[in-house]
Every structure is written in structure tokens, then in C-alpha cells.
Design goal:
It is built from 13 helices and eleven strands. By secondary structure, the protein is of the alpha/beta class. The longest helix has 20 residues.
Length: about 350
């Protein structure tokens, strides 16, 4: 079994296993637990011991609402889970986000385990201790930093995913290549499907190294937001019809154009960046007339400081930050590069 250690407010392992079920059985042998899972995984969850309380939630981003959050807390409280209890989140990134926030909030914080079943969840959402739900005003505006005790990655779940979800998850993998590990880009170009296990491992390693240095996103961790400033706005504007990775891919296209214009990314590096997204068959465009709506969302984003700023690249593997760019210039680049 391979594993990667993360050091945050506590140390824990991301474990790459052959059977997620064995890991959960081991963790719940001597303590009560409740598992949070989306409806589509009801059959999968049936394999768990009957002693583990089941809490079913809706699919996708719909589960990350105040209503869903409150209902799950009440269900767990009515079940009588105590402070020594354990929350288990089995599902995609939305489920691990919700489960982590429930664990952070219930009894002012209890232990939890993440079992990501989507590619995006394996390489991004379940790692790093950021938990949360969405508000009407924006994505992940309510949340807490609360690391899991374990992250259990079982790649067998990949066979249950749609082609669309696999490709969407690859946007986060590619992002890790753009900001830190150029070998990820090499592997994608050689054939990402044949190299999926190594790509997952290397993407997790990138995120682990970043969050171990900067747990609470004070500076270093911001590089993980490459492509996300516009991406989150697009995700929300689409009513979450676009997958997170699809929206981020469009944001990556935009961020690379900003990098070329302002941050020193060369023309050849820019072309390679775009070619990677094309190899993954990811979207890179969004309606031209959406700029005003997207700008409004970006100005309300939790990542915004006193001014709108973007993570960009001075070269592939070398992220930097861009701010103090006139809105008219940002709009012009959006309409030229992203707008259709």
C-alpha cells in the first residue's frame, strides 16, 4: 500500500488501497460511526457493517446546502453519536466537503474519514482539510478547516464514473502539473489513461506538499486556486450544471491567457498549456455576454482579499499572483480568449 503523509493541524495519511471497505471496517471496529453518502452509492454502502448509521444525501452540489447540512446534523444527533464517534464521507468532492463540515460542527468537532469516489475527490476535495457548503451568495462561503483522520483512495471507484466525470477530474490533475509538477504534463501527453494511477499519486503529492506548508491558505496554498477564481464563478453561474473540473478548465484557459499577457509565460508554454486541456477534451469557453455576471460573483468570492487577484504562471511550474489589473483589461481578455 502506498501512502502520502499530510501535516496540518494534525498529521494523517492519504492511503492508496485495494479495498476501501477493509479500511472502514478497521476504523470502526471499536467506535460508533455514521456514514454520509449520496443516493447513487446506496448499493455500495450496503456492504458496510449494519452498526454504522446511514445518512443519505442528494447528488452533487445539491447536498451542499444549508437545508441539507441542518438535516444531516439533526439525523446524527437523533442517532445519538457521541464525541468519540466518527463521521465517514463516502462520495465525490461535494460529499466529502459536506461530511467534513458536519464533523467540524457537530459537538464542536469530531473525527472523520474521507473516502472519495470521484477522481476530483481523490486528488483535490478530500485532501487538505477544507470543508464547507454553498450559500445563495456563492460557493463554499460557509465552512471550516477540519482535517480528516484518514483519506482512503480506492481506484476501483474510477470504473463507476462516467467519461465526463473522469475528464472533469483530470482538470485538477492538470492544474497540479501546471503549478508544480511538470512530469504530470509529460504523462498526460504520453497517454493519460494509461498513466492514471501515477497521475493521481503525483497530484495528491503536489497538494499534500502545499497544504503541509500552509494549512489555512495564508499565502502558499493560494497556488492551488490556479484557474479557480473564474472557474468558481462559472460553476455558480451555470447553476452547477457544469462539473467543478469543467468550470475550472475554462478558468485555466483564462488564467493561462493572463499569464501570457502579464506574468511572463512564454508563447510556447501557453500553447502547451492549451494543448493539455485539449488532449483531456475539456471545455475552455463560456458565453461572451456572461462577463458582468461572472465579475459580480468573483467580487464576492471568499478568496478575494481587498482587490480581485488571480494566480498566474511566470513559467510552467512557477506560480505567481496577479492583481491591480484594470477590469476593462480583464474583460477584454475574457471576451477574446474565453468568450464564444
Amino acid at each position: 500500500m502506498r501512502s502520502i503523509q499530510i501535516k496540518a493541524e494534525l498529521s494523517y495519511e492519504v492511503e492508496f488501497v485495494e479495498s476501501w471497505l477493509n479500511g472502514i471496517v478497521q476504523s470502526t471496529k471499536d467506535r460508533p460511526a455514521a456514514v454520509i453518502f449520496p443516493s447513487s452509492l446506496k448499493g455500495t454502502i450496503s456492504a458496510l457493517p449494519s452498526s454504522i448509521h446511514r445518512v443519505e444525501v442528494p447528488e452533487g452540489e445539491n447536498q451542499k446546502s444549508l437545508e441539507s447540512f441542518g438535516r444531516v446534523l439533526n439525523e446524527i444527533a437523533n442517532y445519538g453519536l457521541q464525541r468519540q464517534g466518527l463521521i465517514i464521507g463516502v462520495g465525490g468532492g461535494a460529499t466529502t466537503d459536506l461530511a467534513g463540515y458536519v464533523a467540524a460542527s457537530y459537538l464542536r468537532g469530531i473525527d472523520w474519514i474521507a473516502v472519495p469516489t470521484s477522481l476530483a475527490g481523490m486528488v483535490d476535495a478530500s485532501i487538505g482539510g477544507k470543508t464547507g457548503i454553498n450559500l445563495d451568495a456563492g460557493k463554499n462561503l460557509a465552512g471550516a478547516f477540519h482535517s480528516p483522520r484518514r483519506v482512503i483512495v480506492d481506484e476501483h471507484f474510477l470504473s463507476t464514473l462516467s467519461e465526463r466525470d473522469i475528464k472533469a477530474g483530470m482538470a485538477e490533475v492538470a492544474k497540479c502539473g501546471f503549478i508544480a509538477d511538470l512530469h504530470i504534463l509529460d504523462l498526460i501527453e504520453k497517454g493519460w489513461r494509461e498513466n492514471i494511477s501515477e497521475l493521481i499519486f503525483r497530484a495528491v503529492k503536489v497538494k499534500a506538499s502545499v497544504v503541509s506548508v500552509d494549512f489555512r491558505e495564508s499565502f502558499e496554498r493560494e497556488i492551488l486556486n490556479y484557474g479557480h477564481t473564474l472557474g468558481h464563478a462559472i460553476e455558480r453561474d451555470s447553476g452547477y450544471e457544469l462539473r467543478h473540473g469543467e468550470a475550472v478548465s475554462i478558468g485555466l484557459n483564462y488564467a493561462s491567457a493572463l499569464s501570457l499577457r502579464f506574468s511572463g509565460l512564454t508563447e510556447n508554454e501557453y500553447k502547451r498549456h492549451i494543448n493539455i486541456l485539449e488532449l483531456l477534451d475539456l471545455p475552455t469557453h463560456y458565453p461572451r455576454d456572461k462577463w458582468s455576471a461572472l465579475l459580480s460573483v468573483m467580487n464576492n468570492d471568499k478568496k478575494k482579499r481587498d482587490r480581485l487577484r488571480f494566480v498566474t504562471l511566470s513559467s510552467l511550474g512557477n506560480p505567481t499572483r496577479l492583481e491591480n489589473v484594470e477590469t476593462t483589461e480583464l474583460q477584454s481578455i475574457y471576451e477574446e480568449v474565453v468568450g464564444r
